Amino acid sequence: MNTTTPARTAAPWWAGAVAGFLAAASGVAVGTGVAALLQGVPSPIESVGNRAIDYAPPFLKEFAVKQFGTADKPILIGGVVVTLAILAMVAGVIGRSKPRLAVGAVALIGVIAVAAAAIDRTTTASRALTLIPSVLTLAVSLAVLIVLLGTLTQLNRKLESLPAGFDRRKFLKVALGASALVVVGGVVGRVYGSAAAAASRAGIRLPGAAIAAPPIPAGVQLDLKGITPFVTPNRDFYRVDTALRVPDVPAEGWNLRIHGMVDKELNLSYRDIMNMPLVENRITLTCVSNEVGGRYLGNAAWLGVLTKDLLEMAGVQSGADAIKSTSADRWTAGTPLDVVTDERNAMLAIGMNGEPLPLEHGFPARLVVPGLYGFVSATKWLVDIEVTRFSDFKGYWTTRDYTAEAPIKFSSRIDVPKSFQSFPRDKVRLGGVAWAQTVGIEQVEIKIDDGPWEIATLGAEDNLETWRQWMWQWDDATEGTHKATIRATNKNGKTQTSERARIRPNGTTGWHSVQFRVE
Ligand SMILES: Nc1nc2c(c(=O)[nH]1)N[C@H]1C(S)=C(S)[C@@H](COP(=O)(O)O)O[C@H]1N2
Ligand SMILES: [Mo]
After folding, report:
1. Which residues touch 292 (CB under 8 Å, ≥6 apart)?
2. From the CB of 482, is ligand 1 less than 6 Å away?
3. Of the candidates 385, 330, 328, 334, which has an alpha carbon nearest to the alpha carbon of residue 357?
4. In what residue span(s) does the Oxidoreductase molybdopterin-binding domain sit (predicted)?
């Protein structure tokens, strides 16, 4: 026996947990930092999250969008991180007595991350480049784990733990080193993540529209506190997409390819688009996931080029009936060819409310198609348009139980009152918005409790592709709790059905109602 080494005690469980945690954290931090330095490469956590999004059953996604709205992505990332941290800590605790088991478990998690990166289709980089972060994560995690476990128990070369215990001093040293890796990786990841597109956007001055939108008519905005503004400011515009990290697509180097059943394939740069005569149109965009009364719609002025002009430049061949549009993160939508070539203002947009598209709304370019839900038309971070046939492909959501074609179901919403708002008896004024893009809103009616339908006052009409405000005053209001119900009629003479339809496969129907009080 060697009596000169200080006696070692067995490592406490928390030291095992710290070892497992630091192994995973340093690996992930290094992978994330390196991913941020590589253009268009997702971090290991994002790749795992992207897989989770792709494999999740549609009902779960619907639930997530409904419950968490735009916060669904941070929540998913948080879920992946917490799960990983727990697994790694458990592995570390077990690793005190069974180091091989712990190393095997961490290796397995690392391999899952590598596999997720290998099949991550959201990347714009090469396959080999995409694998670098997760392979580094795997290597760093294993190395840190093995060294730390070695300080907890003595390990022989076969990773078998020998009875002698905890080397506190060495543990602290290695733990500090691993923590430094976590900090450096984290800082690099933060500083360099999606920096290229932001810098590119900041340098852009959009030209004015050659064909400007007509001025907004007076009277589109009704004078009622709490009513949704007629034009939605960019920062309030709803966001729905599958991107965990906003794709980092600088305008320089961006290329839009238009190909397929065309006479002449086009490759257009951002500059090419800016040099075309641009048009501006106000269009209200709507998401299929909008619940009755929901907030997943917004109205903006979009600046860009009409798709019918782009497709005319390319020359569409006979037999085609669809365009398949693809984003930088490999999301796809299928849109009927006649819709993007008819008289409506379907456009390739580069500007939104006087600014270059915000990063979350598709910078540098996206599609906006009046009258269709976003999932079959509004491709953000657009890079490719293929003229094709519906029989030859399916868009992202169409492979997930949604229909291939999805015109917007016209609808209406009560903005005022909010649920259980109360009014003084002489000031019961209700208001909101109604939309029937490309057709137009003819009439909005309000019903109090089981009373008769009363006709609301409509705000001025901007164009048939935007929503319209409405307002109604209840003159002989009675005290108590009441329910207001709304229904709209479009310019084809159709009135909204009271029948409830769910989101899947092609959007909700039903009347919105709100409870309120009169005092
Ligand atoms: N690349 C990409 N584009 C996309 C999506 C997406 O997931 N990825 N979602 C679509 C859906 S479902 C809608 S409703 C609109 C929403 O656009 P917004 O986020 O700018 O409001 O974008 C569409 N474009
Ligand atoms: Mo959507």
Report:
1. 411, 500, 508, 509, 510, 511, 512
2. no
3. 328
4. 245-397
Q: Which two tokens stand for residue 242?
A: 């599958």
Domain locations along the chain: 13-193, 234-399, 411-518
Pairing of strands 457-458, 322-327: unpaired
Residue 366 alpha carbon to ligand 1 centre in Å: 9
Beta-bridged to residue 334, according to DSSP, are 324
Closest ligand (CA of 249): 1
Going by the DSSP 8-state scheme, the letter that residue 73 receives in this structure is: H
Atom nearest to 362 CA in ligand 1: 20
Q: Are 22 and 178 a contacting pair, CB within 8 Å?
A: yes
Peptide bond into 417 cis (omega under 30): yes
Q: What is the distance between the alpha carbons of residues 253 and 331, in angstroms, rounded to a whole number?
A: 20
Q: What is the mean pLDDT of residues 491-498?
A: 98
Mean pLDDT of 53-58: 79
258-271 pLDDT, tens digit each: 999 999 999 999 99
85 in helix, strand or coil? helix
**Cβ 309 vs Cβ 316: under 8 Å:** no
**Alpha-carbon distance 376 to 324, whole Å?**
9
CA distance 390 to 413: 33
Higher pLDDT, 164 or 304: 304
For residue 507, give the ligand nearest its CA: 2
One CATH from 2.60.40.650, 1.10.10.60, 1.20.272.10, 1.20.1250.20 for 411-518: 2.60.40.650
Measured distance CA(174)–CA(264) in Å, rounded: 61
Q: How far, CA to CA in Å, does 247 sit from each of 24, 225, 252, 407? A: 26, 37, 14, 27
Give the model's pLDDT for residue 499. 97
Of the chain, the percentage scoring pLDDT greater than 90 comes to 75
Cβ partners under 8 Å of residue 271, min gap 6: none
Which ligand 1 atom is at minimum distance from the Cα of 382? 1
At residue 241, what is the residue type? D
Which CATH architecture is the domain 234-399 placed in? Answer: Alpha-Beta Complex (3.90)
Cα(375) to centroid of ligand 1, in Å?
A: 6
Instruction: Please give the DSSP secondary-structure letter assigned to residue 32.
Output: H
What integer pLDDT is reported at residue 303 of this predicted model?
Answer: 98
Looking up tokens 């996931």 gives 289
Q: How far apart are CA 434 and CA 450, in angstroms?
A: 22
d(CA 387, CA 336): 10
Q: What is the DSSP letter of 210?
A: S
How far is 374 from 290, CA to CA, in rounded Å? 11
pLDDT digits (tens, 9 = 90+) for 391-403: 999 999 999 999 9
